[in-house]
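queue> holo job accepted (4'-deoxy-4'-aminopyridoxal-5'-phosphate)
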Amino acid sequence: MSDRDGKIWMDGQLVEWRDAKIHVLSHTLHYGCGAFEGVRAYKGDDGSTAIFRLEEHTKRLFNSAKILRMTIPFTQDEVNQAQIEVIRANKLESGYLRPLTWVGDKKLGVSTKGNDIHLMVAAWPWGAYLGEEGMKRGIRVKISSYTRHHVNITMTQAKAVSNYTNSILANREATDDGYDEAVLLDASGFVSEGAGENIFVVKDGVIYTPDLSAGALNGITRNTVLHICRDLGLELVQKRITRDEVYISDEVFFTGTAAEVTPIREIDRIEIGSGSRGPITEKIQSAFFDIVNGRNPKYAHWLSKV
Ligand code: PMP
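queue> job finished
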């Protein structure tokens, strides 16, 4: 991935993709204190390219940095602009953006005090994260043997680099066991989220999602689905959800920038509902793609034209 043509925005400048390098003594590489975002740009039905909820992603990046006591040396406007520039410079019609802020190589030792904070933005084409077929048929997931971070350990509202070891372990365990993705429970055994996705459950026409006290990231796609449910007149409840509640639900789906809206057809080899994408999931998925592809004027303000 490091050796290709293209441009990466690094500390205020567009640099050649293969020259966007950092030193091995960079603090974040050793201690994991850093934050990132995952953002998508879509080619709309009118042929133009737009970044979906760019401002909200940048805001979350700055909030993650705040939680981690890192001061990003750029304004949010500059970081928004950097993302637009990267899409343009790489001539992408659609794709995935990865802004990342990290602690530099001025000194090592646990404290980040006095070290430099850096920021980069890269972008590349990326299709359906959990597969095109999964978007239609639904995917198979496993409840992880790993517990999702407790809210007072690594700070679950920060999209922190170090939080992802937990996601990597859970994802590896699930995929090595032949599943598509993992679902993690919180330290009390309540459903939290996927390794990189929020989770929703449908039962008797009502939609449920874990409240954020279960340690899930406050997903921007999760928030988009809250809006969609309101628009469609669907009742949505945020509450504690148990593992067995998920087993006996009618439909389950994941949301995330990478995963978009992905149906789940099986959990721990237990078939969910009809064993394929459910009707409410399909409605929400289709409303989601209407929004990101510019077909719903109500949400035109969520699309930053490139
Ligand atoms: N939870 C985790 C752990 C994630 O990594 C992601 C992806 N950012 C999400 C949830 C979904 O968040 P979003 O919809 O903002 O991408």
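queue> The domain at 7-124 is CATH 3.30.470.10 (D-amino Acid Aminotransferase; Chain A, domain 1).
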